Batch of 2 targets.
Target 1
Amino acid sequence: EIVAAIEAALLPETPGVSQVPYHNVIYQRAPTGAAPGMGEAVGRLEPARPLVGRRVLVTSGPTHEPIDPVRYIANRSSGRQGHAIARAAAEAGAYVTLVSGPVAQPDPPGVHVVHVESAREMLEAVEVALPADAAVFTAAVADWRVADAAEEKIKKQGTAAPTLTLVENPDILAHVSRMTKGRPGLVVGFAAETEHVIEHAKAKLARKGCDWIVANDVSPETGIMGGLSNTVHLVTATGVDDWPTLDKDEVARRLVARIATALRP
Amino acid sequence: EIVAAIEAALLPETPGVSQVPYHNVIYQRAPTGAAPGMGEAVGRLEPARPLVGRRVLVTSGPTHEPIDPVRYIANRSSGRQGHAIARAAAEAGAYVTLVSGPVAQPDPPGVHVVHVESAREMLEAVEVALPADAAVFTAAVADWRVADAAEEKIKKQGTAAPTLTLVENPDILAHVSRMTKGRPGLVVGFAAETEHVIEHAKAKLARKGCDWIVANDVSPETGIMGGLSNTVHLVTATGVDDWPTLDKDEVARRLVARIATALRP
């Protein structure tokens, strides 16, 4: 029987030590059938589960936009960061739906995973997954798709190369941010930039109408896209938090801890 | 000490039994230091290694053609068939160089693997890997690349979607087939089609100047692209062999057995 859970005050800033809050959970250990209040109180440090009873939606991975039955437009997102966020939110007790594009990542345990390919499929799956208390749009959704994907494989004919006319995909982040009914209490976007990272992220926050933007520099030389660590900046209405370079799992745990604080009544 | 290797005449047509020829290898088992001719002859069936001393070049997987630092054009090739051919050729005793596009397949043991991304990188690696006795071009090389890949991530600006102007990639199969100096003795291409499979494959054989085409139907409903089995037709100057639907490993072993027969002096 859990008697009390006291949040541990100590959050060491030691490198490599998780910044996730811990609870000092006090258990009442007593023989079966003992009278109330009998027995011994035992304390144990356990990770806080501050998202118990909360619904969290996470998108992850790239989208694939078909050109013809065998060719498609893709991007270098591995899904590592989004999957880590879904896993961390589930570990914090949330009911998590993860809408994932094509990735090599395994489905995180205890998470409801919906697999999609294109941006339009992702939007549909997101609409089905709502309502949610918080939505984190980590997926690198293709901005554009090919206007008329071919039914049969496009053949190489003579020397004329085809021209791909692109049309804009639905903007899932902006769509959810601007919902007048059923908007999640907290909408978090990601901004993968290769230049002017903070400036672009601030502009994106205003343009999309979301609450936070997690911005990072995905220039090839950073190794972040497809890599194991990430250097992010959390952009909110009130300012910018620069986080140190962290394992993507730790970025996920910190972000989930921030979300839990923001959702606290 | 191996005394003799006699090719087994029996190649059962039983489903599921490999069609790869076996050798009845006769070993001389004798005590250390025994006089020549002493001891006992022991026969053991072993897979034939008919490509010992041969150099085989195999390409596999898709190519990725950059649009900008984060986006690219890809295709659904998993690399399963090409990697299986490289593995089978190595098992048959060949020195194998495998030039592979981005795949989730592990490097086959005992094979020299060169990892590339784009068609132009693949051509370079193929040229470095030559000369070879046989070259098998299994890779689904992109026919086109984007004319001017952007140095920075293309931003979504207003409502105007960009148009991707494509230019033709080098034709690796045709290039190697038409080499006047150092052409591999046997050049094998693959044709992934979604309609008129045999007709397109015959036209490709003539157009490219290669010796054989392995043709298959990669329509999404066949599940061949990314799948474990394959239904191929071997198109040569003298006719078409229709193979039954087989595991991709068995397609590889049969093809390697045919290559070994063709290379036999």
Target 2
Amino acid sequence: MATATSTTKAILPLHHHHHHPPTAATKNGLPISIRAYKDFILEFHQNQKPSNRAIKLAESLSNMLYQQIERNLNHRTSNVPRIEDKHDTPTMSPKEDISKKWQEIHGSNDWNNLLDPLHPWLRREIVKYGEFAQATYDAFDFDSFSEYCGSCRYNQQKLFEKLGLTKSGYEVTKYIYAMSQIDLPQWLERSRFVDTWSKDSNWIGFVAVSDDEETRRIGRRDIAVAWRGTVAPSEWYDNMQRKLEPIGQGEAKVEYGFLSIYSSKSESTRYNKSSASEQVMREVMKLVNYYNGRGEEVSLTITGHSLGGALGLLNAYEAAKNFPGLPISVISFAAPRVGNIAFRDELYQMGVKTLRVTIKQDVVPRMPGIVFNESLQKFDDFTGTLEWVYTHVGVELKLDIRSSPYLKKGMNLVGIHMLETYLHLVDGFLDSTTTFRSDAKRDVVLVNKECDMLVDELRIPHNWYQLENKGLERNFHGRWVKPTRDPEDIPSPIVESYNNVLEMQDS
Amino acid sequence: MATATSTTKAILPLHHHHHHPPTAATKNGLPISIRAYKDFILEFHQNQKPSNRAIKLAESLSNMLYQQIERNLNHRTSNVPRIEDKHDTPTMSPKEDISKKWQEIHGSNDWNNLLDPLHPWLRREIVKYGEFAQATYDAFDFDSFSEYCGSCRYNQQKLFEKLGLTKSGYEVTKYIYAMSQIDLPQWLERSRFVDTWSKDSNWIGFVAVSDDEETRRIGRRDIAVAWRGTVAPSEWYDNMQRKLEPIGQGEAKVEYGFLSIYSSKSESTRYNKSSASEQVMREVMKLVNYYNGRGEEVSLTITGHSLGGALGLLNAYEAAKNFPGLPISVISFAAPRVGNIAFRDELYQMGVKTLRVTIKQDVVPRMPGIVFNESLQKFDDFTGTLEWVYTHVGVELKLDIRSSPYLKKGMNLVGIHMLETYLHLVDGFLDSTTTFRSDAKRDVVLVNKECDMLVDELRIPHNWYQLENKGLERNFHGRWVKPTRDPEDIPSPIVESYNNVLEMQDS
């Protein structure tokens, strides 16, 4: 080296032990044995001259050891539980046979005595449905430079496999597409280009059905419908709280923006010649008839986050009208208010059970009608504004970001609203007076997929859910190209409905 | 379907040909044959009922065809050349034997008659060195959540392979690390955490040497040094134009911030017990002695972008002092001014040849000394501010973003300064009066790696250069974890210098 070589002496671990008895001695708060290793490694780096190839291995090992020691010291001073300790454990509780209790879990007794403390079977089912709703985000093509912007990146046969949901025990049977005939700025994800798969429609969710094994475990054949929401609720905040539209034959009314997305159709489109409503009703009817025909008990469970929760409630209302006697429950996350009192009352009369999962700090469940909410009901007859009173439906499971040691406590409005934040808090919820349960199994890292909610000590990058090079790939010549989508992953209304017919015939 | 079936008749391509002679007929500006296909496909979608599985294939094909037609229409109306046409072509011109002309290409005649028009051999060499400089960005770990933030993500044996530079004909022999003893805010990329690979140093570049085949082609053994710059020049704009420090024994002075990065060292660090200056001089000396000892002619070519160009000039100055007679050239991109007139004059006297590549719209080459620049030289004796007069060195190749049909023309200060934008414009440069050459081979997509400079018609995502899920990987249990870095990719000062010794002995 050009600089002077070190003039300090090599100090071996033994020296330190000599000066400091190893029992309780510390230096700078470190146990001496670790301190000695650190000195040894530093000295090793300063004094050794390379003499043979074995030193390479020693060097690498000492590097890693050095960092492990620093890391341990670092973590010792933190209140945040180490997530590394759970790296080699499953991310879900084992499956248990809930067949004897499934009606209660789906609200037959209005979730009495199941929410506080939260029954572990119910917790597991809430997370299961929540992950279906999350799948509608994870697989959605948000890239406005993509000609498939607004579609699902995978076809329905591949969806669960690509997202690691094959163990869910469900199979996707139908994709649902939606459009809106009224102008809802920012709702539709649209490609920047002319030659897009669809100018009008977005993939808005899917229908799935439990397989035989899951059906045995949960005590009935379950049809699950998952509705996609929007990522940034502020986008529709201004546009969706202005007007109520009638639904059904009575006094029930619902927010016109939600209803437009749920029921719009146009013959000039490829994917919404029938509305989302018609698509999902047709699929549910087909499945109900098929499994009833085999003598099976069937249930319908509808889930969705944010706007998706609102669409889910419209879906439940319509399904209850069309399938009297079918057990229908809704598990919604961060859903805004949807309709008026009459809408709620009709849902109750028809036996629809709704579990609303909310986070105390999330503003979206207070929309629309932050002003005109239930607490004003007593003024209704007086003011004549009954139709303007949006109201919530069902039973609430209320979460609190302060309960989790993993979450930042600032008012990150987007992060607090994210479905992954909800699922994290459900997974850790014991009861309303206790903090996060220590044996929660769900992967904490998921929270930061599309936000920055995890405390920095965990060292998880924020907004980490992203494609390598935004989907560009280097070809044989070294050029970066957009791979063409596999033909089976290009959205195709005919193929999707046709596949269904074939599969029903095959079964 | 629940909706009414279409009542329009199927129209076959033949009908259209019947009504419109195929020769010059168009409809909405489309050749009729394409229009007919479109109608056919639309009708196909509306009228066909699924009857067997073959329809799936037809449907997929028609989908793709439909989109191809739309794409063609879209492109036909644009002035931007199609980049898809070059997908299956090489990204560089073929290598030619430049051994007879290499001194001229490296400035022996001050690039007289080589720049306007730009000699194709020189163009190819500029891009070659520029891609070395680009490699210092592409492999740099910018992730502040990484414990290796500020290091190179790959070890020196793997660098070129990982970046697709194996065909360059060079091999990396040494990594260079730098620190700064004066506070240069925002210069150092630093991990957020205590247990980082280094608290003080950043990877700042590398030394490479031409292999035997490339050496034959270029007429001498070439030692290349590539210096990394900073990504956002605004970060050091405010901090690096205040003070000149003497360099050498005469009147030469250079900007103190650049000099600090180039020459700082500290015994308490792991990677800068010797300075960047000492590291690179030692390596160059070793290589020069080795190849001179084998009777080979040797050259030194230094490259860098932005701050890296400034460091390269300091490097050239020092090398010229230490190796009189060694042909030294600098090819810099977007480099700011570095020193005073005396510094420039010493460089000239020692025979250092500098080719400065600039973009007319880029502000960085006007820094420091936007005010105190060459044009004020006549006032120097009067005002006594000679030492404050920063001056540029060498010969300029001046580019213009308006020359490329692929680039947006707005004043995107970051995008205009990016090295990939420079390399794109060099690749397309014919002469100062002509626009972009149509046979330019370099991949246009690269421009948008870390900015948004390509026109939207090209549909290339902006800032697309990114890791899948920011480096997180799903493990066996479905948990997202940070993979530990391979031991050989953990920066290690001993291993790196030791490997070199071994390799020199092996050769």
